[in-house]
TrEMBL record:
Keywords: 4Fe-4S, Iron, Iron-sulfur, Metal-binding, Oxidoreductase
The species this protein was found in: Georgenia halophila
Domain of life: Bacteria
Endoplasmic reticulum recorded as keyword: no
InterPro entries attached to this UniProt entry: FAD/NAD-bd_sf, HdrA-like
PANTHER family, per database record: COB--COM HETERODISULFIDE REDUCTASE IRON-SULFUR SUBUNIT A, FERREDOXIN:COB-COM HETERODISULFIDE REDUCTASE SUBUNIT A
Keyword flag Transcription regulation: no
Name this protein carries in UniProt: FAD-dependent oxidoreductase
Length: 462
């Protein structure tokens, strides 16, 4: 669905709901749970057979920091915190408060990497599913949203395709957590793609995991080498000798909770679009080729990886950036740098502006320091020209640079909780999402353990 294609089909209606959530990644999972807990009859539609999006299918991890940049205050709480605690109780996650910067769990990186959350992808599939079912969400797996149902400038449902054929969903509010703004773009509303100056987006990466690593040897090497970017000199040496062709300067190696198992975030496919099926195919093929080159490199050159074997590759290439909506407000780098306060704040974040270069092997993490805590406003989740829809996660209204900070998984949970709560509020009060009472939304988010800054405290807590 790279652009609006009017769909005129006489599809049978499978469900009539208050809120239909598209996609079960961090944002959609959180949105569906939150809408249902607030009393909305909610359906969650997911093209895969399990929940999690990049948490599971993408093998992406750890969850980057949910804390302020200085690591002192936990900012992302609510549904995210519940999921983490549930997984931790089963020994399948480590609470971020226990994971310091510079640890193997955060790739030995310091800046912006204090208090990440290591977790097992299988744990998300189970714990996420339980939370959805306990909240009363109707779940529809193996179903792809192909277009919105519209009435003028208003979305009032979806067309889905599955083994059951093409069917319709009637919904009072649709929450687009597809990460590509599929619903908003499909309705013909304005969207943008990539950098403002040339439309190029961050590169894609196929995650993979390896087993059989000697964890102690990796640790010993890193503490002895004392490099700001661990392993950078090994990569450079291999590149000089023509033994490393991946267009990326550093390697991202993240220890998992299983002894000897590491996630590798290093393949890089440049110049491909996340909403072009030919490009996605090219990226999958190129990503897989790079995985095999990297296995040789890791085994041959990286201390501790001599006996490593490929455990698995992600079910899908990871897309860092694609289509974004044009919302009532567009979050900017300046908002992040100044820590601008918004009257309609729905979440706070402290993760840095993390840009993998769209054109070469480089990247930016420390170049544009943000405030210690910055705010996300409700209006960036509301499409400017379309009613009946809210958006959360990777496709919200933000500039290329601002998105590079808020795209990670904890803030996606926070945005999801906000839009799920807002959608239920819109249904309950009979207004369009853009017209809800934002004070009430904020009170409800606080009641549900979100954190909106030190000045905002729950009204109902005695
Ligand atoms: C390579 C890479 C590395 C990253 N590293 C990290 C990291 O280390 N830590 C971190 O916290 N974040 C990281 N991120 C960022 C993070 O993973 C994403 O930005 C985040 O998952 C966005 O959440 P989301 O809910 O918007 O989308 P997603 O996680 O992409 O979920 C979208 C869901 O929607 C479903 N879907 C999409 N379209 C449709 C449709 N039409 N019909 C039905 N279902 C649909 C998908 O199947 C998927 O389940 C990384 C991202 C990438 C790509």
């Amino acid at each position: 669905m790279s652009q609006a294609v009017p769909l005129h089909v006489d599809a049978p209606v499978r469900a009539k709901v208050d809120v239909a959530v598209v996609g079960s990644g961090p944002s959609g999972l959180s949105a569906a749970i939150s809408a249902a807990r607030r009393g909305a009859r909610t359906i969650l539609i997911e093209r895969y057979g399990y929940v999690g999006g990049n948490l599971t299918a993408g093998l992406v991890g750890p969850c980057m920091t949910s804390y302020s940049l200085d690591g002192t205050t936990q900012l992302i709480r609510g549904v995210f915190e519940e999921l983490v605690l549930r997984m931790e109780a089963r020994g399948q996650a480590i609470h971020p408060s226990k994971v310091p910067a510079n640890s193997p769990y955060c790739g030995y990186i310091t800046y912006g990497h204090d208090k990440v959350t290591p977790f097992e992808p299988e744990a998300v599939k189970m714990a996420g599913l339980e939370m959805l079912r306990e909240a009363g969400v109707e779940i529809l797996f193996h179903s792809t949203v192909i277009a919105p149902r519209t009435d003028g400038d208003r979305v009032n449902g979806l067309f889905i395709t599955s083994k059951s054929g093409i069917e319709a969903i009637d919904a009072t509010v649709v929450v687009d957590c597809s990460a590509d703004a599929d619903v908003v773009a499909g309705a013909g509303a304005q969207t943008v793609y990539g950098r403002e100056e040339d439309g190029l987006a961050q590169p894609m990466t196929l995650f993979f995991r390896v087993a059989g690593v000697d964890d102690a040897k990796v640790d010993a090497y890193v503490s002895e080498a004392q490099e700001i970017r661990p392993f950078a000199s090994i990569v450079e040496d291999a590149r000089q000798k023509g033994e490393y062709t991946i267009p990326r300067k550093g390697i991202g190696l993240y220890k998992t909770m299983r002894p000897g198992v590491w996630r590798i975030n290093t393949t890089r496919v440049l110049g491909v679009s996340g909403v072009d099926v030919a490009d996605l195919t090219t990226a999958e093929i190129e990503g897989r080729k790079q995985v095999h080159e990297l296995m040789e490199f890791l085994r041959g050159r990286v201390p501790g990886f001599a006996d490593a074997m490929l455990l698995d590759t992600a079910a899908t290439i990871g897309v860092r950036e694609s289509r974004r909506i044009v919302g009532e407000y567009t979050l900017t780098l300046d908002d992040l740098e100044t820590g601008r306060h918004f009257d309609d704040v729905i979440g706070t974040c402290g993760y840095p502006v993390d840009i993998h270069s769209p054109t070469d092997a480089g990247g930016r993490l420390e170049d544009d320091p943000t405030a210690n805590v910055y705010e996300m406003p409700y209006r960036m989740l509301v499409p400017r020209d379309l009613d009946g829809v809210l958006v959360a996660g990777r496709c919200v209204s933000a500039t290329h640079e601002a998105l590079a900070a808020i795209r990670v998984m904890p803030p996606s949970f926070a945005m999801g909780q906000a839009v799920g709560t807002a959608a239920a509020l819109a249904v309950a009060t009979g207004v369009q999402p853009r017209a809800i009472d934002v004070d009430t939304l904020q009170d409800q988010l606080l009641e549900d353990h979100a954190y909106l800054g030190p000045e905002r405290v729950p009204q109902t807590v005695g």
